[in-house]
Predict the 3D structure of the following.
Amino acid sequence: MSVNPRPSAKTTTTGAAGAATLLIVWGAGQLGVDVPGDVAAAAVLLTTVAVSWFMPADSKAKH
């Protein structure tokens, strides 16, 4: 049985979406918008759930 050590496209896209959301929240903080930590965590969680929900599981999905 062959195991591919590389993460799937779904895994990397979901992780990148969460990181991007965190950077947006940080940027908002730099612009003076007060974002509580709990709200920032919820935004990251909701973004990753939404992206993983809509991203196909097959990394070779047809476009």
